[in-house]
Amino acid sequence: MLIILRQKARGKRQEARGKRQEAKGKRQKARGKRQKAKLKRDLRDAAL
Question: What is the domain partition of the chain in residue ranges?
Answer without folding.
Answer: 22-48
